[in-house]
Predict the 3D structure of the following.
Amino acid sequence: MKRFAGVLLAALALTTVLWAQGNFLINGAGATFPYPIYSKWFDEYHKLHSNAQFNYQSVGSGAGIKQVTEGTVDFGASDGPMNDEQMKAYQDKHGSAILHFPAVLGAAVPTYNIPGVNSALNFTPEALAGIFMGRISKWNDPAIASANSGAKLPATDIVVVHRSDGSGTTYIWTDYLSKVSGDWKNKVGKGTSVNWPVGLGGKGNEGVTGLIKQTPNSVGYVELIYAVQNKIEYGTVKNSSGVFIKADLAGVSAAAAGAAKTMPDDFRVSITDAPGKTAYPISSFTWLLIPAKFSDANKREAVKDFLKWMLTEGQNYAEPLSYAKLPKEVIVKETKAIGSIQ
Amino acid sequence: MATSSATVPAASPVSGSRSFISRLLSGDEIVRLVTLLFAVCVVGVTLLLVFELWVGSALPRHKFGFSFFITKVWDPIFDQFGALPFIYGTLVTAGVALVIAVPLGIGAAIFLAELAPARVSDTLEFFIDLLAAVPSVIYGLLGVFIVIPLMRDYIQPALKSTLGFLPLFSGPAYGVGFFTAGLVLAIMVIPYIISVSREVLLSVPRDQREAALAIGSTRWESTWKVVIPFARTGIMGSIFLALARALGETMAVTMVIGNTPTISASLFSPGYSIAAVIANEFTEATGDLYLQSLIELGLVLFLLTFVLNGLARLLIIATSQRGSGPSHA
């Protein structure tokens, strides 16, 4: 027992000495959706800069915003931008602002299970909003059938499936529906969890997929990455130029590029229903939440250096992990914004 | 041994002449203090839990007051929060679970304790204990892959065509919902009921049975009229243990209940439970009112468990005064 305590003490002393030699830990917490790429990035970056260690906990966007506001972590991450109220809360507490840095892009796709329909269905914004509002309740409704002349749609009741857990995917989906339907915006709104007018809730992408697979005549939404990796069939969605787009990484990046021209300087922008012929309309950034002011100069330089690396080399890790890369226009804008971190 | 330990508390005031130090040195006092500390910890943790839940839910308590309990809307976007559908779902699923599990569990316990040969009983007991130790996510998967399809394709249509005139068995059959959640919960709590009830039945003194048989009762009469009344409080204890587990179960329920806050007379309807909504929404809850409303739901679940446990105690006291056997609980 004594020996064990001795070893423990020695180990503790050794780590303290090592840490004292200019090593430092930068803690972050937030969204679960980008966790695979964040952990890859922090790992690769640590290999290049052995003295800077990033530690990221995927506790959820809400918890990420809360923790960075309370100052228990050095940076946060969120699938939805912070709202004005949250920005003000941060400003009041710290006396300085918090900055949003888009890291990668994600998208949500409509998936369904209709016996007898094997081809990819085309969804218009009106059809999607109507289905999820509960106004369109049969598969052979003209709003769906008019865009799918080839498919034999049955006269059965539609079973809507949505996420039951709070999630960035739900945020993207409801953000899109709020943009294309005034009715949705006023009655339901956008958020990581909403008061769904109709439907069953499944926990996680796998829960939604499970329910859809098991329930005939159902429709729901999952993350693009999840659908690609698990080879789940999904439908196309009509974008703002009137083209039906089947989601892929290029289409998602195109949406970000299309939105870049009108992008505000704080990057708190929704890119759903973005302009552009090839843009997939149900896309979104996921953001790193970085304080504008660091009291620790080491941490500040490390974070700034990491952000620069993330926008250049880091982006090459995105596509192998099925995340869409940031388009050039956004990278240029972000590189400029790094300078404002003090 | 039993008698000597029973006299210790009575003897302690007499031994007041022995100094505190000598009692400390002899070890008795140390044991008393340490175990007292452990016992106080239990109360302390419970009180701390209630305190934290109470303080953590200040916003919704002030904003909604009592209407939190009777509001049906749960809308994080427009900041409207009501607990009614979740309370309803929690009670209905736990109720369905007990309706199914109690007769099955007690029946099995009677067989194992009274009728089965000892070797069979012990072997089965091993499997039952194994079932009780299976993690709930496994039961959830069982629910998703076996119970839900069975429900949707066979059980619910059959119930609809025979008992469909009852509001309990009406509406579309999705497979997920109150009934499925209740059934999965029943499967989960049956091992508890069997295991505890069997032990209680086995601990009924032999002479009770022999006396009953000696005055000419059949085997069944001795079991039903003598052994079970004797073990009644213990069996009730097993049921309340099962109820507590059913009320608080999270993972398995959220996988099969449909996660839709509805109040419907139909057991086929999808629903939601308190534990499930907390687990689902807590991590991504943004905004203080939203987060604190979830914490208040935790407080409600605590209250619900507390009240039901209190009622259980009252029931046990009331029945044990009428009954003949001593209290096992």
Notes: Confidence is low (pLDDT under 50) at residues 1-15, 323-329 of chain B. The longest strand of chain B covers residues 74-75.
